[in-house]
Write a structure and sequence with these properties.
mainly beta, 5-stranded antiparallel sheet, about 0% helix, Transl_elongation_fac_P, protein biosynthesis, elongation factor, cytoplasm
């Protein structure tokens, strides 16, 4: 058990029969009444994000999560195949379970698979990934880096807003949390 006063971003907890990752939290001490913790949680099984308020000092169960380093191999219909780098064991995850993460996954990319008591829950993405631009409008002479943005389609099908100076074939650093442009690689 862990106190909600000890919440940290990235902590995994068990609440209401679900496994949740703490995305954000805020300790609130109102002038009148008891202190509480306002939190933003992501369900690791469904991907749903929920805001939940806990009383100050309330105890929740900490979930024991195992991360296994695996390589994304390929898509097989509605399933996606991952291989353990140590024992070459392969697992399949349905597209519905990792719908958001698929926007950032390339073949042969190494990522962490989240396991809970032998159950494969999902994919833990790195903070940033490098993806190549496959389609975007050409930049016009005179456009500046601070003067707006245009849409660009990346190799995984993700569409992000990028500065005008980005061209087709450029490799970009993309933030996986927000799905946004960070810089050119």
């Amino acid at each position: 058990m862990i106190s909600v006063n000890d919440f940290k971003t990235g902590l995994t907890i068990e609440v209401d029969g679900g496994i949740w990752r703490v995305l954000d939290f805020q300790h609130v001490k109102p002038g009148k009444g008891a202190a509480f913790v306002r939190s933003k949680l992501r369900n690791l099984r469904t991907g749903a994000i929920q805001e939940k308020t806990f009383r100050g000092g309330e105890k929740v169960a900490k979930a024991q999560i195992d991360n296994r380093k695996m390589q994304y191999l390929y898509a097989d219909g509605d399933n996606h195949v991952f291989m353990d780098n140590e024992n070459y064991e392969q697992i399949e995850l349905p597209a519905a379970q990792i719908e958001y993460e698929l926007k950032f996954l390339k073949e042969n990319m190494e990522i962490n698979i989240i396991m809970y008591q032998g159950e494969t829950i999902g994919v833990d993405l790195p903070n940033t990934v490098e993806l190549k631009v496959t389609e975007t409008e050409p930049g016009i002479k005179g456009d500046t880096s601070s003067g707006g943005s245009k849409p660009a389609t990346l190799e995984t099908g993700l569409v992000v807003q990028v500065p005008f100076f980005v061209n087709e074939g450029d490799t970009l650093v993309i933030n996986t949390t927000e799905g946004s442009y960070v810089s050119r690689a």
